[in-house]
Amino acid sequence: MMPKIKSNRGAAKRFTKTGSGRIKRRQSFKRHILTKKSPKRKRQLRHGTLIAHADEASVRQMLPGL
Fold first, then answer.
1. Looking at residue 30, which CATH number applies to its domain?
2. What tens digit of pLDDT does each residue of 15-66 get?
3. What confidence score (pLDDT) does residue 66 get?
4. Domain assignment present for 5
5. pLDDT reported for residue 26
6. Any alpha helices (H) in the chain, and if so which ranges?
7. 50-61-59 Cα angle (round to 5)
8. Rounded to whole angstroms, how far apart are CA atoms 29 and 31?
9. Contact, 42 vs 52, CB < 8 A?
10. Is 2 part of a structural domain of the chain?
11. What pLDDT, on the 0 to 100 scale, is given for residue 39?
12. In the chain, how many domains are there?
C-alpha cells in the first residue's frame, strides 16, 4: 500500500482555492515599513489576488489535495 501524499505545510497556510478552481494568495509588502506607503497603496494591498498561471503548476504540486 502506498503512503499518503503529504502537502507542503508552508504552502497550505498561504494558498486557498477559489470556487472556479484558481488559487488565491495574499498580497506582499503589507507587513512593515508602512509609514512611507500611501493610504491608497496600503488599502489596495488588503485584498488577495490570484497566483500567476506560470506558478500554478508548482503550487498544485505542493498541495496535491487542493
1. 4.10.410.60
2. 999 999 999 999 999 999 999 999 999 999 999 999 999 999 999 999 998 8
3. 86
4. no
5. 96
6. 9-14, 39-45, 53-62
7. 20
8. 6
9. no
10. no
11. 98
12. 1
